[in-house]
Specification:
The protein is α+β, with helices and mostly antiparallel strands. The protein is built from 23 helices and eleven strands. The protein binds protoporphyrin IX containing FE (HEM).
């Protein structure tokens, strides 16, 4: 009798729980109803395909493209996300339909960091175009050519006497990160960080200050994970964006949590950058603008009200800091990949050395024109290394109005990510994609002639493409010419093969790139 009563009452007892579960599922999956017509892996409970992303990193998009084709949906928390893995569709998103897909999606790691949000990368609509139009002049060829002596002197300081450890080895990725940070420190802030070599060249600030600043920067950058290893509020934000901010507000007050740590570090970083910006604003701006910060401060002064509104102090700090963020890890990763790949391919190394040796004697620094015209094979090597290891494997955009891509109608608010890393390994455009073969970029070769013009886009595409492309290529070429005039490199036996990669906001080498350094006669 009792049993019957209990069994009879069970459904009533469970009803509210079932209703709550149904509500939760509807809340989580309703946004997907609008992109249901796209192919894609089956919807999966709660975390969606995030565990897959955590396990495979951006390779997961290659596996899924093989299965579902050039455009498919991916289940990232509550956010409808569409992956585009085809050059023609990338042209659609990046160029033809730019007006509808011109903004970036804001991944939840960034949405809790104003310092990262207010740079050019994540600003939107009119503010983005006004900012970009103002600062683009700094990336014109004439300005970049003026930076050659500065870049060259920092390169010399970093690479002239490469200090090696036991067995003549260095962790080159560390050395190149210091160099790239120094170059940006000088070009963006006009500050000599002096990380590459001793402190004799550094004017200000003190050793401890600089290394503390860079440690903060590295922590802040590497905490912006795209997988499940970020803070609790970040993971929650993927599931229920509405809850991310309230939870972050609570957790940032709880010592020991990742949110607490990030809040402190980002606050400290902002304070230090604000201090540099305030000092420079007080000093006044002289012409010609020697660095990025003076150019923005100048635009603020001359642009009267509009300039002041556009470049309020928080935006100036974010824009300046963004250079350090966008320009250091990417450039250093590319330099390290070239050295690593060339070290494993003696034929490529021979051809490269021949080209570099045929240029003027060792002491002659190449001009901007030399860099542009006299090193065609070096260009091919860099392109191929950037294809082989695509440092920015995903470009994140968002539909600001309904848009049709690849025959599918995507509603406003859909995230649309261009999978550059997938394009780079597509055998249709790059036969035998896992072979390192710089000649595939020879302009006279058949492969280059038949390739889709947007198959290789490591710097992105369209009006929103990387603003620092020429800046970083200039630094990379100067560095490689300097290095190969003096050294050759061999892979350290202590290094794993293939290299393990880590996926933060860009790719990095999990255990660094270790090389043996051999001096050339
Ligand atoms: C090898 C080096 C680099 C690579 C591979 C790289 C790659 C990229 C990519 C893929 C994007 C997104 C483009 C798109 O949405 O279509 C981007 C944007 C950007 N990059 Fe780079 N980048 C590099 C170096 C630099 C440097 C040195 C700087 C600064 C000095 C820089 C500053 C920026 C900025 C500010 C944006 C945002 C542009 C906008 O939204 O208007 N990057 N970069």
């Amino acid at each position: 009798m009792k049993l019957t009563a209990a069994a009879g009452s069970a459904p009533w007892f469970l009803l509210p729980a079932l209703a709550a579960l149904a509500g939760l599922l509807v809340y989580l999956y309703a946004p997907y109803w609008r992109v249901r017509k796209l192919p894609g892996p089956p919807l999966s409970p709660l975390l969606g395909h995030l565990p897959l992303l955590a396990k495979h990193g951006p390779d997961v998009f290659r596996l899924l493209a093989d299965q579902y084709g050039p455009i498919y949906r991916f289940h990232l928390g509550r956010q409808p996300l569409v992956i585009v893995a085809d050059p023609e569709l990338c042209r659609d998103v990046g160029i033809r339909k730019f007006k509808s897909v011109g903004n970036r999606s804001l991944p939840s790691p960034i949405s809790c960091s104003p310092l990262h949000q207010k740079g050019l990368f994540f600003t939107r609509d009119w503010r983005w175009s006004a900012m970009r139009n103002t600062i683009i002049s700094l990336y014109q060829p004439s300005h970049l050519a003026n930076l050659i002596p500065t870049m060259q002197s920092l390169i010399e300081a970093a690479f002239l006497d490469l200090e090696t450890g036991p067995g003549g080895e260095i962790t080159f990725s560390d050395v190149s990160l210091k160099l790239a940070t120094d170059v940006i420190g000088q070009a963006a802030f006009g500050v000599d960080l002096g990380l590459s070599k001793g402190d004799h060249r550094r004017a200000a600030p003190s050793d401890d200050e600089v290394s503390a600043f860079v440690k903060l920067h590295v922590f802040s950058t590497t905490s912006l994970k795209m997988d499940l290893s970020g803070s609790f509020s970040i993971v929650l934000g993927l599931l229920a964006p509405i809850l991310q901010e309230p939870f972050r507000q609570v957790l940032k007050r709880v010592p020991g949590t990742a949110d607490w740590k990030m809040e402190r570090i980002n606050g400290e970083l902002s304070r230090r950058i604000d201090a540099i910006v305030t000092r420079r604003a007080r000093e006044g701006v002289d012409l010609p603008c020697r660095d990025f910060l003076s150019a923005i401060l100048k635009a603020r002064e001359s642009g009267a009200a509009a300039g002041e509104e556009l470049f309020s102090p928080d935006y100036v700090s974010a824009l300046t800091y963004e250079h350090l963020l966008a320009g250091s890890a990417t450039t250093s990763f590319t330099l390290s990949s070239v050295l690593y790949l060339v070290a494993g391919h003696p034929r490529v190394e021979r051809r490269l050395l021949e080209e570099i040796d045929a240029f003027e004697p060792c002491g002659v620094v190449p001009s901007a024109d030399d860099l542009h015209r006299k090193f065609p094979y070096l260009d091919q090597v860099i392109k191929e290394a950037m294809r082989f290891y695509t440092v920015s494997p995903l470009v994140a955009r968002e539909a600001s109005q309904p848009v049709e891509i690849g025959g599918y109608h995507l509603p406003k608010g859909t995230w649309i990510w261009l999978a550059l890393g997938v394009l780079a390994k597509d055998p249709k455009n790059f036969p035998e994609p896992d072979e390192f073969r710089p000649e595939r970029f020879d302009p006279a070769g058949e492969e280059e002639k038949h390739r889709h013009p947007y198959a290789h886009i490591p710097f992105g595409i369209g009006p929103r493409a990387c603003i620092g492309q020429k800046f970083s290529l200039q630094e990379i070429k100067l560095s490689l010419i300097f290095l190969y005039r003096r050294y050759i490199f061999r892979r350290s036996p202590a290094m794993q093969s293939p290299l393990a990669l880590e996926y933060g906001i860009v790719l990095s080498f999990k255990h660094g790139v270790k090389l043996q350094v051999l001096k050339r006669q």
